[in-house]
Design a protein that fits this description.
heterodimer, A: about 325 residues, alpha/beta, Rossmann fold, Alpha-Beta Plaits, 6-stranded mixed sheet, 4-stranded antiparallel sheet, 11 helices, about 35% helix, about 25% strand, disordered N terminus, B: about 375 residues, abc type-2 transporter like fold, 5-stranded mixed sheet, 14 helices, about 65% helix
Chain lengths: ~325, ~375
């Protein structure tokens, strides 16, 4: 909108310029009496890949929908691309690419027809060229006439990504984009996300995969609507205060049975021929393991907890407000 | 190998079906609601022998004879003499707009000619577009007239009672002189076909978006609700016109229905009628959770539309409450318009009275649809 020179200043102040692509504080969303998002604050730097983790039903999808204006928060405020999420959702929608958890393109349209429709929705100029470029970029060019409904999971996901970046958004919100996709396609998808981020795009992606979380610049863990921890992966692991011992050799099934529920032992889990034992106090952990290390023929070594250890630990600690 | 028939498995499937049936509240309500609706409509609303039909009266020769004639007609229960016309053009207008079903003219010199035994003419004009609405009343008319006059023809006039009748009762079945049912049904069918397909198609088209999850995608894009609604509706208006062309062609070529009025005027009115039905369908789609529910809602709308609009049964045969419901339905007004244009040759002036409620219906339902179609998922 242009303001004629000499006229009064516009009543709405221009959005504050912040380096953060997403900066929201105290978001709350209820559905009926269910508190789905509880006081969540997130800040994502421009150009970062931000991983959003948490168990099923933890409020990840709802938070993403709050960010792109599909839902209005009951409380909280903030900006997305410098625009107020409460008052400028229409403007935010134009600059955000949102990839839904469930494939949400038209299965009875071909790949090219789907992309062409999206291009028209955003009122893009040079539509044909942009659609062709997107098809080329994601390797969909020779499938352009194929109906979206006939595609396999990996190709559907590529189509969805192509459609999301067609209007050259500044922010991508990806809701579990790689669920049910094979490892090779997942790897390629993440390579593409890194290429996009290198071009200056900010990406917020929710996932259940630990290897994907480790490819993010920063992660946040949300459980039952509450943000439990956030930061770069190493800091999240270090900040958990968790100690891990790896037990190998001997009768691991017996060790596991004996340690489960033992005071000071938070988690016991078998990984192939090794047992991960974690707890908040290293000394207590060693004491619990001592009989097996000395008497049994087990080998016990100290190790850094994995991201998965940290998350299961966080999950156990959080209270399930749906129960 | 499936093995032998298992009652356990049969029971498991039946229990599962019952649980699913119970979960889908709307379907359950429809299973109970549709029979009740049908009972009410067929049981109470429908009457194939309409009474108290609005009648206009033009008495150019007031006399005891004309008074007893009109009184007898009123007493018969068939005629409701609610309009007093002063000249034939007024009668034409009343019949064209459908405000009266009959118009009775008692000419100048009626009583003089009657007493001289010259068999004066009593003209009865009927709006015969729907033969079913007029046939019983017309059949009773001759008897009513004779009995009324026989009571008056006493003393020296008693000789006039004999056959032939003392008056010449002339019945003009206007717009459909031969009383051909198809003339009424085929144009009406246009409205019925449009009602059914337009409501159902839009209801399904939008519900499908939600069922397949594509609605969330649409909502995340910068498109306004009105754009979505209009974009969904306009293609179906085209489909509606194809149906209309088929029906008009069939009416003319297959059934020989006269097309007296302007097809251009009809085309213009069709936009409003089709849009009204599409808006209903769109509203349903915002209420339905899945396509099955959308279908059921369409049916729930369609049933009273067909039964209470005057398509199947004479509108004036229905009790007051059913007529009130009928007046709300777009099909009722469209039927009057389409029959008016095709059979009576009505122009804009004559159909305006039916067009206004149609436009009002469209406006209200569109507002409702837009209110229901939310831009967010809240």
């Amino acid at each position: 909108m242009t303001v004629p020179s000499g006229s009064a200043a516009p009543t709405i102040a221009p959005p504050a310029i912040t380096p953060a692509a997403i900066d929201v504080r105290g978001l709350v969303k209820r559905f009926g009496d269910k508190l789905v998002v509880n006081n969540v604050s997130i800040r994502v730097d421009t150009g970062a890949i931000y991983g959003f983790l948490g168990p099923n039903g933890s409020g990840k999808t709802t938070t993403i929908r709050l960010l792109c204006g599909l839902l209005t928060p009951d409380a909280g405020e903030g900006t997305c691309l410098g625009l107020n999420i409460r008052t400028h959702s229409a403007l935010i929608k134009r600059q955000v690419g949102y990839m839904t958890q469930k494939f949400s393109f038209w299965e009875d349209l071909s790949i090219a027809e789907n992309l062409d429709f999206v291009a028209r929705m955003y009122g893009l100029t040079q539509r044909r060229r942009r659609v062709d470029d997107a098809l080329e970029r994601l390797g969909l060019a020779n499938r352009r006439r194929q109906l979206a409904g006939e595609l396999s999971g990996g190709w559907k996901q590529r189509l969805a990504l192509a459609a999301c970046i067609l209007h050259e958004p500044k922010l991508l919100l990806l809701d579990e984009p790689t669920a049910g996709v094979d490892p090779k396609a997942r790897r390629e998808f993440w390579d593409e996300i890194h290429r996009l981020a290198a071009d200056g795009l900010t990406v917020l992606v929710s996932t259940h995969y630990m290897d994907e979380a480790e490819r993010c610049h920063e992660i946040a863990y949300i459980a039952y609507g509450t943000l439990m921890t956030h930061g770069p992966v190493e800091r999240v692991i270090a900040g958990s205060g968790l100690h891990t011992r790896i037990v190998s050799g001997g009768d691991l099934a017996r060790v596991e049975a004996a340690l489960a529920g033992h005071a000071g032992v938070e988690m016991v889990a078998v990984f192939g021929s090794r047992l991960h034992v974690s707890g908040l106090d290293g000394a207590v952990l060693d004491a619990a393991l001592a009989p097996w290390a000395d008497g049994g023929n087990c080998r016990v070594t100290a190790a850094d907890p994995t991201l998965e250890d940290v998350f299961i630990h966080l999950m156990n600690r959080s209270t399930d407000n749906f129960q | 190998m499936m093995g032998s028939f298992s009652f356990g498995r049969l029971l498991a499937v039946m229990v599962k079906e019952l649980i699913q049936m119970r979960r889908d509240r709307l379907t359950f309500a429809m299973m109970v609601g549709v029979p009740i609706l049908q009972l009410i409509l067929f049981g109470f609303a429908i009457n194939a022998d309409p009474k108290r039909l609005p009648t206009a009266l033009l008495v150019a020769d007031p006399s005891p004879f004309s008074r007893s004639l009109t009184a007898a007609m009123g007493n018969s229960g068939y005629f409701d003499l609610r309009h007093s016309a002063t000249d034939p053009t007024e009668i034409d207008r009343l019949l064209a707009t459908g405000r009266v079903q009959f118009a009775i003219t008692i000419p100048v010199g009626f009583s003089r000619d009657l007493q001289r035994g010259e068999r004066p003419t009593m003209l009865v004009e009927a709006d015969a577009t729907d033969p079913a609405a007029t046939s019983n009343a017309l059949a009773a008319l001759a008897v009513i007239a004779r009995q009324a006059l026989n009571a008056d023809l006493v003393g020296p006039l008693a000789g006039l009672r004999a056959d032939p009748d003392p008056i010449d009762l002339r019945i003009h079945r206007r717009y459909n002189p031969d009383g051909i049912t198809q003339y009424n049904v085929v144009p009406g069918l246009m409205g019925v076909v449009l009602s059914m397909t337009m409501v159902m198609m839009t209801a399904l088209a939008v519900t499908r978006e939600r069922e397949r999850g594509t609605m969330e995608n649409l909502l995340a894009m910068p498109v306004r609700p009105f754009e979505v609604m209009l974009g969904k509706i306009v293609p179906f208006i085209g489909v509606g016109y194809i149906q209309v062309v088929l029906i008009v062609a069939a009416a003319r070529l297959l059934f020989g229905v006269p097309i007296v009025g302007s097809l251009w005027l009809l085309s213009a009115v069709l936009v409003v009628f089709i849009a009204a039905n599409l808006a209903v369908g769109f509203t349903f789609s915002t209420l339905a959770k899945n396509q099955l529910q959308a279908m059921q809602m369409s049916f729930f709308f369609f049933l009273p539309s067909v039964l209470l609009s005057g398509f199947m049964f004479p509108f004036r045969g229905m009790p007051g409450w059913a007529q009130t419901v009928g007046e709300v339905l777009p099909l009722t007004h469209f039927l009057r318009i389409v029959r008016g244009i095709l059979l009576k040759g009505n122009g804009l002036a004559e159909i305006a009275g039916e067009l206004v409620p149609l436009v009002a219906f469209l406006a209200v339902v569109t507002a409702l649809a837009l209110k229901r179609y939310r831009q967010t998922l809240d």
